[in-house]
Recover the amino acids of this structure.
């Protein structure tokens, strides 16, 4: 269940803007690195499970990157039969937060990645201002 | 069962029970870890927590490779429990004996993992116990038996290699009694 603290509210507003600008996005959520839902739009019951799963996947992608000696994992991209799932770390958040995005099949991957990266930067700035 | 086989054993239990430490204590390779910062200090006061899996390997004297998988402890990661239990020959269930919920944890985790695969044998390792409480392990075993699950219970310090190896050895002994001809030697 997402929290109602100012940080979550700010993140949720940012996610609503992102989803409105990207109609193929069916769910966008901010998660803590240990699998908690921080904010989601729309507020779907499945968001809690997706939050836990995305943190597991991200931790595994980082383990693979470490094992392969390829530095830190930046983006996690899952292309499915009819959609795309992205998990991106939100820069400069401690403890680390991530943005998970689920989009339907018609979204072009490059455009979705670009929009999601921009959303991460906006979330970073938004969350930073909440801490001031 | 011939030599140079591969076996898979799953370490599970609540958050903070010592799964990551146990695998680290016996793995022949540097374990693969997926620990991240723990933001839920109310649930468990520790700095980090496993969110996907731990992975280690242990070579037995007869050449058998044991693949060691640790699960995340929290219920929100239960989807990983089923994934990790696929193909496992047994489960090591670790319980933190110092918590007031230890008996309840034992029953609930044993029931969930028994449901995932009813044929998998269990071994229970209880850590951080008080040495003065001599009847403690019996109470754990009885509590488990009341849930219809029979499993040996050991007082362990998961930081000690010999304690964790005892759990593995016991699991392999149970397997041998279930499937004759599966003798393995732990070193």
């Amino acid at each position: 269940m997402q929290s109602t603290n100012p940080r979550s509210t700010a993140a949720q507003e940012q996610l609503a803007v992102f989803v409105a600008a990207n109609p193929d996005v069916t769910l966008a959520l901010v998660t803590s690195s240990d699998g908690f839902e921080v904010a989601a739009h729309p507020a779907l019951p499945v968001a809690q499970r997706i939050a836990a799963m995305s943190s597991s996947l991200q931790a595994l992608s980082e383990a693979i990157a470490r094992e392969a000696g390829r530095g830190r994992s930046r983006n996690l991209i899952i292309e499915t039969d009819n959609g795309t799932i992205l998990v991106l770390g939100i820069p400069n958040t401690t403890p680390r937060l991530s943005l998970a995005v689920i989009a339907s099949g018609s979204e072009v991957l490059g455009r979705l990645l670009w929009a999601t990266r921009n959303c991460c930067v906006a979330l970073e700035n938004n969350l930073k201002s909440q801490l001031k | 069962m011939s030599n140079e086989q591969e076996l898979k054993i799953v370490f599970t239990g609540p958050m903070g029970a010592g799964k990551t430490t146990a695998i680290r204590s016996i793995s022949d390779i540097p374990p693969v870890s997926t620990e991240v910062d723990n933001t839920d200090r109310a649930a468990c006061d520790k700095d980090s927590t496993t969110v996907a899996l731990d992975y280690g390997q242990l070579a037995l004297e007869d050449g058998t490779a044991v693949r060691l998988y640790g699960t995340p402890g929290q219920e929100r990661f239960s989807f990983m429990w089923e994934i990790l239990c696929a193909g496992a020959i047994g489960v090591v269930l670790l319980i933190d004996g110092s918590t007031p919920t230890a008996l309840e944890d034992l029953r609930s985790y044993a029931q969930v993992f028994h449901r995932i695969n009813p044929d998998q044998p269990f071994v229970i390792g209880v850590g951080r116990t008080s040495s003065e409480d001599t009847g403690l392990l019996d109470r754990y075993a009885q509590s488990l038996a009341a849930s219809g699950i029979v499993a040996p219970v050991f007082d362990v310090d998961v930081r000690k290699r010999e304690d964790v190896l005892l759990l593995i050895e016991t699991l392999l002994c149970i397997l041998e009694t279930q499937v004759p001809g599966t003798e393995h030697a732990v070193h």
